[in-house]
Design brief:
Blueprint lengths: L1 E5 L6 H11 L7 E5 L11 H7 L1 H5 L3 E4 L7 H9 L3 E4 L4 H10 L2 H8 L4 E5 L1 H4 L33 E3 L12 H8 L6 E4 L3 E6 L2 E6 L3 E4 L1
Parallel strand pairs: 1-5, 2-3, 2-4, 4-5, 6-7
Antiparallel strand pairs: 1-8, 7-10, 8-9
Length: about 220
């Protein structure tokens, strides 16, 4: 299982190289599926979503598909994800994304898909990869409301928590001090990463890729 969990996407050459290493083959020979579902319930300017979607073009993927799992039936969603080599889950509302991963049945299908594909998370797309969303169950860091059903279980792809956007001007509560306080509510490791940092995971072997700041708690 190969994952690249980012705060703000492919923001620098180090993260780009980490993704290329995970993919093995050149981007130009691969297909990308971008899942924008987490952004559907976010208000205001969506320039960040446009930026996230544009990664496929910037990296030179042979094909970029947009797969909104809340807008199509489960069979079609699974078929289109099967057609891709890289599954990129965009940012937005963590609970809304997890709700649709459960409702569509993809929560059960993703481990099988990831036997031959690479998972890339951006912000909320990274947080749902964890075992549970207990640290997201609060407006203290992101003002992330629970929209939809009470989806508290994550995909369980990794055994740690991830807090993106460390020290970001867009998320003023995401300071080292605040994350340290909230991390005391769980026993698992918590990684706070800034927008130039990612976590590379191959099976259970993880590596920090960073041109900025990150910090582990617990």
């Amino acid at each position: 299982m190969k994952l690249l969990l980012t705060s703000d996407g492919i923001t620098n050459e180090s993260i780009k190289k980490a993704l290329q290493d995970l993919c093995v083959r050149p981007f130009g020979e691969l297909k990308l599926a971008f899942i924008p579902t987490a952004a559907n319930v976010e208000d205001g300017d969506k320039d960040w979503l446009i930026k996230d979607i544009s990664y496929g073009m910037k990296l030179g993927f042979a094909e970029t598909d947009i797969v909104d799992i809340s807008a199509i039936d489960a069979e079609m969603a699974e078929r289109r994800l099967e057609n891709a080599d890289v599954l990129m889950f965009g940012g937005g509302n963590t609970f809304h994304l997890m709700y649709w991963l459960q409702k569509s049945g993809l929560k059960q299908q993703i481990p099988e898909l990831l036997k031959t594909r690479v998972y890339v998370g951006i912000s909320a797309g990274s947080m749902v990869a964890t075992a549970n969303l207990v640290l997201s169950d609060s407006p203290r860091l992101y003002n992330n409301e629970k929209i939809g059903a009470d989806a508290t279980q994550g995909l369980g792809l990794v055994d740690f928590h991830i807090r993106p956007h460390l020290n970001s001007l867009h998320f003023p509560a995401m300071s080292v001090e605040n994350v340290e306080k909230i991390s005391k509510e769980v026993t698992e490791p918590v990684y706070a990463i800034d927008d130039t940092t990612a976590i590379r995971v191959v099976d259970r072997d993880m590596q920090i890729i960073s041109e900025g700041m990150w910090k582990r708690f617990n």
